[in-house]
Specification:
- The complex is a heterodimer of chains A (293) and B (246).
- Chain A is mostly beta strands and 293 residues long.
- In chain A, 4% of the residues lie in helices and 50% in strands.
- Chain A has helices at residues 185-190, 228-233, and strands spanning 9-12, 15-16, 20-28, 31-36, 40-46, 51-59, 82-88, 93-110, 116-123, 127-129, 151-155, 163-177, 203-219, 237-245, 252-269, 277-286.
- In chain A, the strands form 2 sheets. In chain A, strands 1, 2, 3, 6, 7, 8, 9, 10, 11, 12, 13, 14, 15 and 16 form a 14-stranded antiparallel beta sheet that branches. A two-stranded antiparallel ribbon of chain A has the order 4-5.
- Chain A is globular.
- With 246 residues, chain B is mainly beta.
- Chain B has helices at 86-90, 92-95, 173-177, and strands at 13-15, 18-19, 22-43, 48-71, 104-106, 109-111, 114-123, 130-138, 141-143, 166-168, 171-172, 183-196, 203-215, 225-228, 234-235.
- In chain B, the strands form 3 sheets. Chain B has a 6-stranded antiparallel beta sheet, with no helix packed on it. In chain B, strands 2-1-5-6-9 form a 5-stranded antiparallel beta sheet, with no helix packed on it.
- The chains are: A mainly beta (293), B mainly beta (246).
- The interface between A and B is large, with 29 and 45 residues.
Chain lengths: 293, 246
């Protein structure tokens, strides 16, 4: 029996995701071969924790439930674990994961298309069939569509010309901390399983700063490429704000900000097939509790 | 046609008659030589005699060193065909003697009179437990034919199968610290030191076992007796904490 795309549901943190185009789930075990003098290779043994990867590609058709903020206004996924599953067969079967952490969140858009959202997740807990087979319990955000006239990019130190495409990407480096299994003397002599096998990390640290890359391409009108030596003398910081609004109500669906972003590269393209365009790349850094000022 | 260089697969390492699961070995021999000089003929230009080099002369016996890194298996700690329990693994000193280890083969070399100088191993999560041993060798090293052996499967000590419990004054550390207590790495090390006692010509062996824990919390490990499942009456000598942005 096969299951078509309309028979599958992608659930993350108890919310069914809309606009999903593609989901990939995988896991891997690292092994180390044991080679012994006088023998050579004997066998290979586990040499690292089991970690999985999940990647979800979506079209932006609503407020993104993954982008919930914590009490201090930072993305909750920066520090919190997420869980989810792919459900099928009337939500009775599935492939799920626990203790996932987002390692990359990216939004790309070009004129004429709905914005694409790509989310990469590293799974430190369980991953496989039969895990978290339960329907979404949280209500789904209202479906909202944007169009090219409802997307804006604002850079604090200049007025942008007509933007033809943009990309926004946040990458998180994570450091899982694992511990040696804990058990008791009685368990040792009984040759039984330990109470705490510690197969999952005790703690997962986000390595700050979180780097955000923002790139957009403009049709050249007023903007002029800066001189490179100006960049060396002073690297001006700008707030880059991308707002994606509902095409009908103009309500902001999702907003992405690069705070105190520095322009790190500019490129100019001219061809016989179109207008001259300039591509700008900004990079910003986010800290845990020491705000970039 | 014989191969001039020894292949890893043909370089069996056997110490005290036991074949070990050695992953790397370093054998070095150092002769203690000094130049032997004699006074020569009279040299009128310096109004004296020049010294002349005759030969190198040995002033002490050959001294060698063997460092090995190996996989721990139960067989390694077998005594009289009985596999050691884990208690004996951590109390290696009870199974050790001051007698030399004889009948040692490292690749194409055969030698006796070897003494354990240092033994250590570390336990990390999800890793095969790797042990290291360092030996001092006295006497002659002989050449022998290279050998190999077969080992179809091994059951090495592994971080996934190993566990322990740390107690302070016989109280579980979770309880003693009133918070979660975890060990992320453990290093065990014993070293032998030769101590010359007063009025005694023979050196005596002093064996010092130490355990290093990498912990999340050491409040109650300070100035207390730590008892583990595997080693008793261990006194905490030093606690330190490291913070690094790297």
């Amino acid at each position: 029996m096969t299951f078509s795309n309309y028979e599958q549901t992608i659930v993350v943190n108890n919310t069914a995701l809309s606009g999903v185009v593609n989901v990939n789930g995988s896991y891997g075990i690292t092994e180390k071969p044991i080679k012994v003098a006088g023998v050579g290779f004997i066998d290979a043994f586990v040499n690292g924790p089991l970690e999985g990867n999940f990647s979800i590609s979506r079209k932006m058709v609503s407020r993104d439930p993954i982008l919930d903020l914590n009490v201090v206004g930072q993305y909750a996924y920066d520090e919190n674990e997420i869980s989810g599953s792919i459900l099928y067969d009337n939500n009775t079967k599935g492939f799920g994961f626990t203790k996932g952490r987002i390692t990359r969140y990216a939004v790309n858009c070009t004129v004429g298309d709905l914005p694409d959202i790509e989310t990469d997740i590293t799974v430190f807990g369980d991953l496989g069939s039969g895990i978290l087979i339960q329907e979404a319990t949280k209500p789904h955000p209202a479906i909202q569509f944007t169009d090219q006239a409802s997307i804006s990019i604002n850079v604090s130190d200049f007025s942008t010309d007509a933007v033809t495409d943009f990309s926004f990407s946040r990458a998180l480096n994570l450091q899982p901390m694992y511990a040696i299994p804990k058990g008791t003397e009685a368990e040792w002599y009984a040759d039984s399983k330990t109470t705490y096998e510690n197969h999952d990390p005790i703690q997962i640290d986000t390595i700050y700063p979180i780097e955000t890359d923002i790139n957009f391409t403009m049709i050249v009108n007023e903007y002029e490429v800066r001189q490179t030596k100006d960049r060396l003398r002073a690297a001006p910081e700008s707030d880059v704000v991308i707002q994606i609004k509902d095409s009908k109500t103009k309500e902001v669906i999702n907003s992405f900000t690069g705070v105190k972003a520095r322009l790190i590269s500019e490129s100019i393209t001219s061809s016989v097939e179109g207008e001259m365009s300039i591509s700008l790349t900004y990079k910003s850094y986010e800290t845990l509790h020491n705000p970039v000022i | 046609m014989s191969k001039p260089f020894l292949r890893f697969e043909d370089g069996k390492i056997s110490l005290g008659g036991k074949d070990l699961m050695v992953q790397s070995a370093n054998l070095s021999i150092t002769p203690t030589l000094e130049p032997e000089r004699v006074y020569g003929d009279l040299d009128l230009s310096i109004v004296g005699a020049k010294t002349e080099f005759v030969n190198f002369a040995a002033t002490a016996g050959l001294r060698g060193k063997l460092d090995i890194s190996f996989v721990i298996t139960a067989e390694f700690f077998k005594q009289n065909n009985t596999i050691n329990s884990i208690d004996r693994l951590f109390e290696i000193k009870d199974g050790m003697s001051e007698d030399p280890i004889d009948g040692n083969i490292v690749g194409r070399y055969l030698f006796d009179n070897m003494y354990l100088n240092n033994f250590s191993f570390s336990i990390s999560p999800f890793q095969v437990i790797q042990a290291n041993a360092s030996y001092d060798i006295y006497g002659t090293i002989l050449k022998t034919a290279d050998r190999r052996f077969q080992e179809l499967s091994i059951d090495p000590a592994h971080g996934l199968k190993s566990f322990g419990e740390v107690k302070a004054s016989n109280t579980n550390m979770d309880t003693a610290n009133k918070k979660q207590f975890e060990v992320s790495k453990l290093n065990y090390n014993i070293s032998e030191k030769e101590i010359y006692l007063k009025f005694s010509e023979e050196p005596s062996q002093n064996i010092n076992p130490t355990i290093n824990f990498y912990l999340n919390n050491f409040e109650n490990t300070l100035s207390c007796v730590v008892w583990t499942l595997l080693a008793e009456n261990v006194i905490c000598l030093d606690s330190s904490t490291v913070l690094s942005g790297e």
